[in-house]
Automatic annotation (TrEMBL):
This is Lipoprotein. PROSITE patterns: PROKAR_LIPOPROTEIN. It comes from the Bacteria.
Length: 375
């Protein structure tokens, strides 16, 4: 049976900060000094430990297009939650994995990012080892406006709005897994919490959801959650869990490239062999220092096994590439191919829109070419 790994939105779309709570408690924060901001947008002040002293001669920062996308995502989250957009900046602190230390990192060791709701004074602070961890931006919009709650709500909403996962695979065990994950120091995480949030919103309104969320404390157990549900929605909580097991939830966080015309034409079912130029300012490339990421979209016309190779015309450092199938119908998005080192990688194609994300090294010119072969 084909294992379809759900992609997480942004930051090269790898699973991270999904199995551990991504919000810090006040006692968790070490109040680290933030490096100077190197870029900004309407809602985001972007900091990076790549340049701990701010912009210096030779600094390479290509974040304008990405920050514009992050601004749109912040507005999407606010609209989904029926909230006004933030009126104070979200401070996004980028710490590459190689620079993580006690002086630069306050998140759990096994997390790719976290949100500090207490921040520094009135500052909201996201910490991430990735350049664009959209999951944490959901926390940065929701938590200051609605306050803390049980992690099943906090993480469930962040997953629901930042991924296009399907919960179809967890339906049979959903009631059991959810109940086992409710309690102090526990939460069901991943697709289970996302399914819970999506099922609640399918059952009622956002105002009912917010009311329920506010009635359940961070360390409350199953009894408190069930009582709060029955107060807000009426009916049996156990029956809600059983009913929710009938229909999968699809996350709302589709990649923007899943819509609109494809950026890579592929109109035949035969092999694909194309050269893909990229450059800072092209609307889909972003990066700091030598670490850059770009993305393309293509429509697949055939179904079946295939091999994908992505290589670079740069300095000999070969990129990592991930091909994701976009959500379609009642099926969520999933990882179809993961290729690296310039070597062919096996995978399975299905008809429909796919997004190719490529992580690569860049010279100071922040421009280059990639070769993509699917056969």
């Amino acid at each position: 049976m084909l294992q379809r790994t759900p992609p997480a939105r942004g930051a090269f779309r790898r699973l991270r900060c999904l199995l551990v709570p991504c919000l810090l408690s006040a006692c968790d924060a070490c109040d680290p000094q933030l490096p100077p901001a190197v870029a900004s947008s309407r809602y985001i002040e972007f900091h990076t430990w790549v340049y701990p002293d701010g912009l210096v001669d030779g600094a390479v920062v290509c974040m304008d297009d990405k920050l514009a996308e992050m601004d749109r995502f912040v507005e999407f989250v606010a609209d989904a939650l029926e909230l006004p957009p933030p009126t104070t900046p979200i401070h996004y602190v980028h710490t590459p994995q190689a620079l993580v230390s006690e002086d630069t990192w306050v998140c759990p060791a096994n997390a790719g990012g976290c949100f500090d709701p207490d921040g520094r004074g009135d500052q909201k602070v996201v910490y991430s080892t990735h350049l664009d961890l959209m999951h944490e931006l959901v926390h940065a919009v929701e938590t200051p406006a609605l306050g803390r709650s049980h992690p099943v709500f906090e993480e469930g909403m962040a997953n629901y709005l930042s991924t296009d996962w399907s919960s179809a695979d967890i339906l049979p065990e959903f009631p059991t897994t959810l109940k086992a994950g409710i309690g102090p120091g526990r939460h069901p995480g991943g697709a289970v919490s996302m399914h819970f949030v999506g099922a609640l919103l399918a059952r009622g309104t956002m105002s009912q959801y917010v009311d329920l969320r506010r009635r359940v404390g961070h360390d409350d157990g199953l009894a408190e959650l069930a009582a709060a549900y029955e107060h807000v929605f009426g009916g049996s909580f156990a029956q809600f869990l059983d009913d929710a097991s009938a229909t999968p939830v699809i996350g709302l966080g589709a990649d923007p490239l899943c819509a609109g015309p494809p950026t890579i034409p592929w109109e035949s079912p035969g092999p694909l062999d194309v050269t893909l130029p990229w450059a800072c300012g092209d609307g889909r490339t972003f990066g700091i220092g030598k670490a850059f990421q770009t993305a393309f979209s293509l429509d697949v016309q055939r179904e079946g096994s295939a091999r994908m190779t992505v290589t670079s015309a740069g300095d000999g450092s070969e990129p990592e590439a991930l091909l994701d199938a976009c959500a379609r119908g009642g099926e969520g998005g999933f990882n179809a191919f993961l290729a690296g080192g310039g070597r062919p990688a096996p995978g399975v194609l299905i008809p429909g829109r796919h997004v190719l994300s490529v992580l690569m090294s860049s010279d100071p010119a922040a421009t280059g070419e990639l070769s993509l072969v699917i056969e």
